[in-house]
């Protein structure tokens, strides 16, 4: 099965732009999905498909992809964006998924 | 409104059995797979496997195959995760989530609130 690699930690100054990346062979064929998880809460879907946001997710969150790397960009990071971010991708079977190890985002 | 509501926290001893539940509402239960995700204390998300509520066909991650069992009851629109013999390493938060899938992605679009399982002698 495929694996997804994320940087363990990233920091960004308040109001600046940050990119969180996710690498893996499956991303050459499938889009990454991105989740935000704050302490004590369940993960929350923030980006899916090519670059789609569920209702209620601010438009400062966007997704992109190139080759085997998917990126989640937060344009104008806010204090409330401080969280763990996970990517996932489907496998060759749509009912199998794989998660990245997660990136802890700190907003300075 | 789509909701996945999980059963409450459990404290068990090693060797005991356990079944936790994920009650769904607000959508057609048989139209979406349900997946289970483990999060050990301070760690990341791990995919455990997926069940198709139509026929209860389950696919397991190799890491969990043989140690857990998924089931689903269409009458109660509820999915279950079961252990026959718990170990201390099963201490974790367990999430159920609905999978929304196309050819290009499989996204867990709705999540339960999580069930904390603590296994300790």
Please give the structural blueprint.
The complex is a heterodimer of chains A (108) and B (121).
Chain A: E1 5-6, E2 9-12, E3 18-23, E4 33-37, E5 44-47, E6 61-66, E7 69-74, E8 83-90, E9 97-99, E10 103-107
Parallel strand pairs in A: 2-10
Antiparallel strand pairs in A: 1-3, 3-7, 4-5, 4-8, 6-7, 8-9, 8-10
Chain B: E1 3-6, E2 10-12, E3 18-25, E4 33-39, E5 45-52, E6 57-60, E7 69-73, E8 78-83, E9 92-101, E10 106-111, E11 115-119
Parallel strand pairs in B: 2-11
Antiparallel strand pairs in B: 1-3, 3-8, 4-5, 4-9, 5-6, 7-8, 9-10, 9-11
Radius of gyration of chain B: 14 Å
Q: Please give the alpha-carbon distance between the first and last residues of chain B.
A: 40 Å
Q: Determine the fraction of residues in helical runs of chain B and give it as a percent range.
A: under 10%
Overall outline of chain B: globular
Number of strands of chain A: 10
| Poorly predicted spans of chain B | none
Beta strand count of chain B: 11
Give the largest interface pair and sizes. Answer: A-B, 30 and 30 residues
């Amino acid at each position: 099965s495929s694996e997804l690699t994320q940087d363990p930690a990233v920091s960004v100054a308040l109001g600046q732009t940050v990119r969180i990346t996710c690498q893996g062979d499956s991303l050459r064929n499938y889009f990454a999905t991105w989740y935000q998880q704050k302490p004590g809460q369940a993960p929350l879907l923030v980006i899916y498909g090519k670059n789609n946001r569920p209702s209620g997710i601010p438009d400062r969150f966007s997704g992109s992809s190139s080759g085997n790397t998917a990126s989640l960009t937060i344009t104008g990071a806010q204090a409330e964006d401080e969280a763990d971010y996970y990517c996932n991708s489907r496998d060759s079977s749509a009912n199998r998924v794989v998660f990245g190890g997660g990136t802890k985002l700190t907003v300075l | 409104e789509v909701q996945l509501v999980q059963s409450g926290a459990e404290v068990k001893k090693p060797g005991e059995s356990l079944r936790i539940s994920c009650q769904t509402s607000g959508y057609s239960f048989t139209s979406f797979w349900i997946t289970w995700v483990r999060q050990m204390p301070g760690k990341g998300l791990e995919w455990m496997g997926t069940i198709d509520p139509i026929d209860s066909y389950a696919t397991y991650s190799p890491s969990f195959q043989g140690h857990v069992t998924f089931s689903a009851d269409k009458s109660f629109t509820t999915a279950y995760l079961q252990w026959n013999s718990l170990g201390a390493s099963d201490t974790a938060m367990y999430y159920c989530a609905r999978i929304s899938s196309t050819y290009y992605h499989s996204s867990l679009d709705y999540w339960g609130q999580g069930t904390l399982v603590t296994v300790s002698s």
